[in-house]
């Protein structure tokens, strides 16, 4: 499954103009849900205290770009442990989870999950942990595709425009902001 297929809107209801507005709303909802669910799942499935401290900061970072409409698409890829946790949440009838479509990573460690986002002119892969954030121009053929149900870990780690490691001091924030501004054309408003 690549890019979702969107239904048409009859001329009496506004034709293609309304259709494009509706698609934008659905994409925005999906991006927001993807970011939230990704961080919710990895907070619950990550072991070891060395990882858990960084998730609230990373979630806040990406939601700030979402809130200024810089994140146009997002796609969650789950590792095995996160898939099991998501199935558990789905069985409770949690609508936040049951309505979100996502894929899975093939060949990753049990705990690894990833979030692929389009941010400005960039494709960004944010890892749950044990993986640096990778950034490509969206037009780069090596940038991983969104919306595929199965993605090989190697596709998410191929040669990128930038690779930024999440350090516990937060130095990654300024580095990533600069890349998004200079290469992605998005200035972050505080």
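Sequence proposed for the structure above (190 residues):
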């Amino acid at each position: 499954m690549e890019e979702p297929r969107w239904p048409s809107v009859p001329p009496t209801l506004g034709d293609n103009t309304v259709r494009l507005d509706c698609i934008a709303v659905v994409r925005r909802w999906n991006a927001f849900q993807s970011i939230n669910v990704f961080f919710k799942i990895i907070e619950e499935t990550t072991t070891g205290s060395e990882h858990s401290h960084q998730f609230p900061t990373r979630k806040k970072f990406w939601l700030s770009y979402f809130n200024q409409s810089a994140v146009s698409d997002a796609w969650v890829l789950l590792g095995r442990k996160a898939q099991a946790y998501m199935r558990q949440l789905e069985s409770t009838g949690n609508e936040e989870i049951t309505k979100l479509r996502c894929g899975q990573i093939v060949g990753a460690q049990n705990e690894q999950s990833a979030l692929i986002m389009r941010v400005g002119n960039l494709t960004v892969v944010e890892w749950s942990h044990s993986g640096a954030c990778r950034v490509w121009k969206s037009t780069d053929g090596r940038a991983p595709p969104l919306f595929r149900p199965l993605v090989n870990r190697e596709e998410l780690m191929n040669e990128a425009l930038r690779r930024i490691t999440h350090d516990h001091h937060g130095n990654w924030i300024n580095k990533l902001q600069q890349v998004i501004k200079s290469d992605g054309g998005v200035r972050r408003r505080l």
